[in-house]
Amino acid sequence: MANVRGCNLPDDLLYDVANHTWFRELPDGRVKLGMTTVATALAGDIVAFTPKKVGRAVDAGKSVATIESGKWVGPAKSAAAGTIEEVNEAMVTKPNTANADPYEAGWLIILKPDDWASAKATLTPGTEVSGPYAAKMDADGFAGCEAA
User: What is the pLDDT of residues 90-109, one digit of tens each?
Assistant: First the structure.
């Protein structure tokens, strides 16, 4: 597992570094999407998670949910176009689950991608994410997860 400035980034995921999201490929061809530890550290304690509805089509680069914290309100964006097939209802009732467990219990949505091969080509594998994330943190002036 990569650890960049105190932020854990599991090797088995794919990352959209610019938008602080991760993707996990599921055996049935769908993908699970969530926020990275960097996103949760930047946001602080997450107080609301408002996902788009199941069955909703989303375009690449567009929001699949709105995330709200004491510091920030904004979109969780998907690098892949597709249809939302599941939302994490547990996150709706307890949104700060993403702060405690962003890579397992704190996932956001499950998407059936339209063209996963094309979207996947834009993502960074976990085994190669340290350099791109360090550069993103430098560009954003983010000291790291322990400093947040």
Answer: 999 999 999 999 999 999 99
Task: List Cα–Cα distances, 111 to 58, 64, 76, 77, in angstroms.
Answer: 9, 9, 13, 12
Which residues does residue 84 pair with via DSSP β-bridges, in sequence order? 111
Helix (H) or strand (E) holding 137: helix 130-140
Q: How many CB atoms lie within 10 A of CB 94?
A: 15
Domain that includes residue 63, residue range: 9-113
Give the pairing type, strands 31-35 and 7-9.
unpaired
Which segments within 7-123 are labelled E, that is strand? 7-9, 14-16, 21-25, 31-35, 46-51, 57-58, 63-69, 73-77, 82-87, 109-113
Number of domain units in the chain: 1
Residue with tokens 């995330």: 67
